[in-house]
Amino acid sequence: MRHSAEGWWIEEAGAPAPCPPLDGPIDADVVIVGAGYLGMWTAWNLLARDNDLNIVILESGLAGHGPSGRNGGFVNGYWEYVPSLAEKFGAERAIRLAELADESIVAVGDFCESEKIDAWYRAVAHVEIATSPNQDGDWREAMWGLNHLGIDDEVVELTPDQVAQICYSPEFRGAAFKPFGATVQPARLAFGLRAALLARGVKLFEESPVTEIDQHGDSVTVRTARGRVHADSAVLAVNWRTLRWPTFARELSVASSHIVLTEPVPDVLEEIGWVGGEALSDCRRMLHYFRTTNDGRIAFGWGGGRVANGSKHDPRIDVDPEVIERTAATLRRFFPQLEGRAITDAWGGPIDVAPNSLPIYRSSGAVHAGWGFTGHGVGPSNLGGRILSGLALGADDEVTNCPLVEPKVKYFPPEPARSIGGNLIRAALIRSDEADGRGEKPDPVTAAITKLPKLIGMNLPR
């Protein structure tokens, strides 16, 4: 098994030749820091708002090689959040946000079609499956909340027999069926978006870490080791590295997620009936998520990786043999038909976790930032690009006034309490999930620790 930081998606997609780093001064209308999905969708939407804009993107590494090129490739929406959002913002605004997220799912597919990008975009349902008695009905609070708002078709309960018609596993029980979603090959999407932006005249400088952002009057200067960009506004789209900016640092934490990938097993997929490409996950607090690939592999992920110590890069966020061993064992438990079949690749990466599990968009003068996708950024980052493009241009429209912009959220504690507490809660959640899987109750201390996030007003983990 090859265990690396970047993983199979990037290798399969074929990384493009890098762009040169920034060398010297340059001017722009908008400078974007970060060339992942959020930064690149922001550039794409800026051009949709004004095709004549001069846009510069600065990327510390290589575009699409971070979380955007390594994730599970689930393109999801926001319907399960509507009941809780309705309590804060009213039903109309909450429902409209979910509709905007659905528009982004469609927009990703339309982009792939119009730009002729083979990102393996496939419109499929997302099925959240109970794998133990304690997980049964985990989705009902959200489903009933939607029903109360007159929405009956966005989260639908399935019986175990209905789940088995989609995919059979001896571990699977009932489920929640979410009909509107998609999957993609994430690195192919990222590299395709990069190519489309370059073709539209966007200037991309890779291997150009930002050292300083200096605001002066109504403009901003962004500096790297070898150059600077002077612009009317700046967009910060750097995922977990947002922690390096004190203005925003208390509103996110950094966890990690890891994926294992099988060899092609089309015969196994036929045997278990998983031939529709549905995106699946379980209902654990530290959830497992899994999907198939175009060549008949199973990509199986676990969101139970370690919590990082602030902005310090822990190599185990990307490569963690202990987490991969746990993930591979669960894959084989879910699908014993894989006995004797190889797991060929494993990789991981950081997750920018928001206090309420939904992304946050804020402005500080001429700097506009977005973060906190909490492992669900493939589709919502497209909406994020619409939001940040509007904020960067001073637009007052539907997306710049949606509930994700300037929300009131709880602060995470400062370091080292944030990472120490986060890993304490992580360990308790893992113990609780394992006890749940054995049909047992967790010990009293573990049970108490797992309740801490909600007691302090945070919806953690994802």
Q: Secondary-structure map with pairings?
A:
Elements: E1 2-3, H1 8-13, E2 24-33, H2 37-49, E3 55-58, E4 74-75, H3 82-89, H4 91-114, E5 122-123, E6 126-129, H5 140-148, E7 156-158, H6 160-166, E8 175-178, E9 182-183, H7 186-199, E10 203-205, E11 210-216, E12 219-224, E13 227-236, E14 253-262, H8 266-272, E15 279-282, E16 288-292, E17 298-302, H9 321-334, E18 343-353, E19 360-364, E20 367-371, H10 380-392, H11 417-437, H12 444-450, H13 452-455
Parallel strand pairs: 1-18, 2-3, 2-13, 3-10, 6-15, 13-20
Antiparallel strand pairs: 4-9, 5-9, 6-8, 7-8, 11-12, 12-13, 14-17, 14-18, 15-16, 16-17, 19-20
What does this structure look like?
The protein has helices at 8-13, 37-49, 82-89, 91-114, 140-148, 160-166, 186-199, 266-272, 321-334, 380-392, 417-437, 444-450, 452-455, and strands spanning 2-3, 24-33, 55-58, 74-75, 122-123, 126-129, 156-158, 175-178, 182-183, 203-205, 210-216, 219-224, 227-236, 253-262, 279-282, 288-292, 298-302, 343-353, 360-364, 367-371. With 462 residues, it is α/β, with parallel strands linked by helices. Among the domains are: 2-71 and 187-251 and 356-392, FAD/NAD(P)-binding domain; 417-455, no CATH class. The strands form three sheets. It has a nine-stranded mixed beta sheet with strand order 1-18-14-17-16-15-6-8-7. Strands 2, 3, 10, 11, 12, 13, 19 and 20 form an eight-stranded mixed beta sheet that branches. Strands 4-9-5 form a three-stranded antiparallel beta sheet, with no helix packed on it. Strand 19 (360-364) and strand 20 (367-371) form a beta hairpin. Helix 2 crosses helix 10 and helix 3 packs across helix 4 (91-114). It is globular, with a radius of gyration of 21 Å.
